Amino acid sequence: MLLALCLLTALTLLFWSWAAVMFWPALGRIPQLKRLRLPEDPDFEWPALTIVTTARNEEPAVGRAVRSMLAADYPRLEVVAVNDASSDGTGAILDGIRDLRLRVVHLKGDPPPGWLGKNWALHCAAQEASGEYILFTDGDVEYRPGALRRAIWLALRMRADHVVAFPRLILKNAIERSFMLEFSILFFLGFRLWEALDPHSRNSLGMGAFNLVRREALMRAGGFETIRMNVEDDVALGRIIKENGGRFAAGYSNGMVRVRWQDGAWAMVMGLEKNIYASTGFRAWHILSGAAFLLITGWMPFLAVLTGAFSAHIPLILLGLSCLVAMLYTIEAFRPGGLGAPAGAILAIPAGSCLLTAAMLNSLQATLRRGGIEWRGRYYSIEEIKAHRRDFPVF
User: Fold this and answer.
1) By three-state DSSP, how is residue 232 classified?
2) Distance between CA atoms of residues 306 and 302, nearest Å
3) What is the rounded CA–CA span in Å between residue 266 and residue 246?
4) Between the chain's N and C termini, which has fewer beta carbons within 10 Å?
5) Residues of the chain whose pLDDT is less than 70?
6) Could you report the per-residue pLDDT of 139-168, keeping only the tens digit for each?
7) pTM, to two decimals
8) Rounded distance, CA 53 to CA 327, Å?
9) C-alpha 160: how far from chain center
10) 8 A C-beta contact, residue 144 and residue 257
């Protein structure tokens, strides 16, 4: 038993050490938007920007969200808001916002066959956009003054066709921070952040809160028609742009872009129901192996220390403590990204790993039970998604 614990702890130590080694240089290469020096020339001509957002039955929040976009201090701005066949007052609220920079697109009925509803709405909005750059964003994202200028300036400075600004996640307790830390580690490992930052790699990533793309690069990549049945539309968007010669860049928003993704840790678990299994290409072994991996890497350092202390097994204690140190280094590497995870959040890692495991298994069982996914009141079968989905390698 002790030998098995020592072996698992040693493997866990290797993982956390590797994660720290990979994430420190990769995350350290990402600039902070707040520290970027903007052009001092008052006559500098900023490129035209279109903000795109879609809404389906978002009556409580859509008005505030769109008004916040229009309030952004960007000189050449338009907003395209899509009302995706809402059955509530979403359309009336959008029509009631009087601003010449706002264009409202009303969609009726279901999307065409072979399209996810959101992807169809994004496609329709992109056709209406006139800006040189298009920012695809969710309706619950808050922007602080200067955020858009700095993101555009980063795109210009880096000659980037696609820019992700990592938002400051509004997290209210250690459990939420631990969940998001575990999710972020799995996300950046799965999509290989270090390769995404490499201009010579075809790998990339995306983020629904802030996907800024150059319109010409989006059209060259085939637009959303290429990824019309990808549930992970934000990540897939980044992949097709880079595969077609686009350049990727990322920046920390330093709180200039903020979002409260879900209200509570359990809501986070349920909020990933449609995404996780579908994003693996419906590969159950990815879910099961990932769940085992999360539980082992989340619990083993603590179990090693406790078991070693009770059995006076010094090597096991040292292995466990080494794991905790490597885990702490990894947490510190993520701090500039807006997770706000203090060193003490390491104590909540086991709970975070359990919650994320629950999210993965729930996504698996719910999708298999239904034979597909439900998204905003619409049902899509696994067979339908597989028939039209672009498959990107994960892990």
Assistant:
1) coil
2) 6
3) 37
4) N
5) 336-344, 393-395
6) 778 888 889 999 999 999 999 999 999 988
7) 0.90
8) 37
9) 19
10) yes
273: its two tokens = 């129901």
Q: Are 339 and 255 in contact (CB under 8 A)?
A: no
Q: Count Cα atoms within 13 angstroms, Cβ side, for 329.
A: 17
Find out whether 258 and 170 touch, Cβ atoms under 8 Å. yes
Residue 202 has which token pair? 């075809």
Handedness of CA 108, 109, 115, 119 (dihedral sign): positive
Are 228 and 114 a contacting pair, CB within 8 Å? yes
Task: Output the six-digit token pair for 368.
Answer: 């298999």
Domains of the chain, earliest start first? 2-25+271-388 (no CATH), 27-263 (3.90.550.10)
What is the residue-wise DSSP string for 330-387? HHHHHGGGTT---GGGGGGHHHHHHHHHHHHHHHHHHHHHHTEEEETTEEEEHHHHHH
C-alpha gyration radius of the chain? 22
CA distance 348 to 175: 6
Looking at the chain, the number of H-run helices and the number of E-run strands are 15, 12
Strand partners, 212: 135, 163
CA dist 258 and 253 (Å) reads 8
Residue holding tokens 């809404």? Answer: 55
Given this model, what pLDDT does residue 341 score? 59
Task: Determine the Cα–Cα distance for residues 177 and 13; give it in Å rounded to an integer.
Answer: 22
pLDDT in the model for residue 176: 84
Cα gap 33→305, rounded to integer Å: 40
pLDDT of amino acid 336 = 64
